[in-house]
Amino acid sequence: MSYQPIENYGMIGNMRTVALVGINGSIDWYCHPHFDSPSIFGALLDDNCGGRFRISPVAERVKYKQFYWPSTNILITRFLMTDGIAEIEDFMPVGPALDSPWYHYIYRRVRCVRGAMRFSVLCCPAFDYGRKPHQVAIEPNGAIFRADDSSFALSTEVPLRVDEKGGVGRRVSVARGGIAGFSLQERGRGAVPLPAAGAGG
Predict the structure, then answer these.
(1) Strand boundaries in the chain, DSSP class E
(2) Average pLDDT in the 102-124 region?
(3) What are the two backbone dihedrals, phi and then psi, of residue 118, each rounded to the nearest 5 degrees?
């Protein structure tokens, strides 16, 4: 996968950190929990080893469009094809207390507006700019990524599979009116992903 120009990225954030979302549906930059913290996703700098969270259509000749819902920090990435239209809604909650368990979430929701579309999902973090190894485990409600001093949960109803690079993914079909939800959040080392309702699905 080639690098994208910086103008191809939209930004979501919670006033403490931000994530950059490409028009192809890939989060290629995210530092946690602050702007100057080490990166979790860094494909913006290293396409091979930087890590990303990509949700992209499996199709040819796709047109892309990004915009924000008016007066919100909700980023919409829309995919238009001759036989279907779908979009990803991305946001991070703004306003909860700093110690709220909902504060450091990334929410992603895939919605099919017309026709039916297949998506390729890949979540492959690379902790500390790709320098820190991690373990991954599939759980009933998603997957857990564990590094030395941190643990992140990906919650979703979509059944996931582990790949050879320490990521998880799956191809999923979404028909008109259908929704596939995902949320990523830091969790305690003994925690598991939340039920699918916590993923916005």
Answers:
(1) 9-13, 18-22, 26-31, 39-41, 52-57, 63-68, 75-81, 84-91, 106-124, 135-139, 142-146, 151-156, 161-162, 168-175, 179-186
(2) 92
(3) -100, 140
Q: Which residue has the tokens 């238009």?
A: 80
Alpha carbons 117 and 130: distance in angstroms, whole number? 32
Residue type, 104: H
Residues 192-197 have a mean pLDDT of 53
Residue 13 corresponds to which tokens in the numbers above?
């954030």
Handedness of CA 80, 81, 85, 90 (dihedral sign): negative
CATH 3.40.50.1010 assigned to 6-199: no
At residue 188, φ and ψ (nearest 5 deg) are: -65, 160
Q: How many CB atoms lie within 10 A of CB 100?
A: 11
In this structure, what token pair is assigned to residue 190?
Answer: 């003994």
Task: Evaluate whether 15 touches 94 at the Cβ level (below 8 Å).
Answer: yes
pTM for the predicted model, two decimal places? 0.91
Q: How confident is the model at residue 201 (pLDDT cuts 50, 70, 90)?
A: very low
How many of the other CB atoms lie within 10 Å of CB of 117? Answer: 25
Distance CA 23, CA 136 (A): 27
